[in-house]
Amino acid sequence: MLLKLFGGLFLLLLILIIRVLSILPIFRRPKIHKKNTNEQVRVLSVLGSGGHTPEMLKLLETLFIGEERNYQISFVIASSDKTSQHKAKAFSKKFKEKFGIDDIQIYLVPRSRKVGQSYFSSIFTTLYASFFSFKIVVLENPKLVLCNGPGTCVPIALAAFLLRIISIKFIDVIYIESIARVKRLSLSGRILYPIADRFIVQWESLTSKYKKVEYIGRLI
């Protein structure tokens, strides 16, 4: 009986491993989506403390605002990050007035890792934050998750990847490494490197160290 139980668990684990490997971006060709300017593209963007929020807001302004496609942007911010919350509200107000878009939805989640927090303890805080992140991803139902390095983006991207594993929804994950990362990837970048559909860096020197990354010039 015990042998059958272990055999069944091993088989399930093997199926799960095969499933994960089959959908990892590093083991498959990028999925090409046909451009449909009439389709609304829901973008879930993660903001973070320090320089992450100004960079992301500038990226959104550069990449999305004013394009022909209909983008609906929502933000995910750590509940303790008051500065990013204020900047997100100002961003929402600015572009509502300029382009007539709806108010940007802002979701607050527990911080997955505080500055200086040990890697071991951050495992548990990340799991706690992941519960809230999974709920947000399911409710928001985005087409694209866009992040640039704050710890809050890790559980959001993992939640999107989990939905892909269980074949509920295919959500593209685009990771844009911070311009401050010149010689090596950030911790968030190293964690999400295997699952990001596109991994963009802003320093060409990083392309010689990481095969998957793309350098398309400075974005900010």
Set down the secondary structure blueprint.
Elements: H1 2-23, E1 40-46, H2 52-63, E2 70-78, H3 82-99, E3 105-109, H4 119-140, E4 144-147, H5 153-165, E5 172-176, H6 187-192, E6 198-201, E7 214-215
Helix pairs in contact: 4-5
Describe the structure.
- It holds the Pfam family Alg14.
- The chain crosses the membrane at residues 6-27, 118-136, 156-176.
- With 220 residues, the chain is α/β, with parallel strands linked by helices.
- It has a domain at 38-166: Rossmann fold.
- 42% of the residues lie in helices and 16% in strands.
- It has 6 helices and 7 strands; from the N terminus they run H-E-H-E-H-E-H-E-H-E-H-E-E.
- The chain has helices at residues 2-23, 52-63, 82-99, 119-140, 153-165, 187-192; strands at 40-46, 70-78, 105-109, 144-147, 172-176, 198-201, 214-215.
- Strands 3-2-1-4-5-6-7 form a 7-stranded parallel sheet, with helices on both faces.
- Helix 3 (82-99) links the parallel strand 2 and strand 3 (105-109).
- The longest helix has 22 residues, at 2-23.
- It is globular, with a radius of gyration of 18 Å.
- The model has no long low-confidence stretch (mean pLDDT 81).
Keywords:
globular; seven-stranded parallel beta sheet; Rossmann fold; alpha/beta; 220 residues
By DSSP, the count of extended strands is: 7
In which order are the strands of the major sheet placed? 3-2-1-4-5-6-7
Categorize the overall geometry: globular
Please trace the helix and strand order, writing H or E for each element: HEHEHEHEHEHEE
Kindly state the percentage of residues in helix: 40-55%
Count helical runs.
6
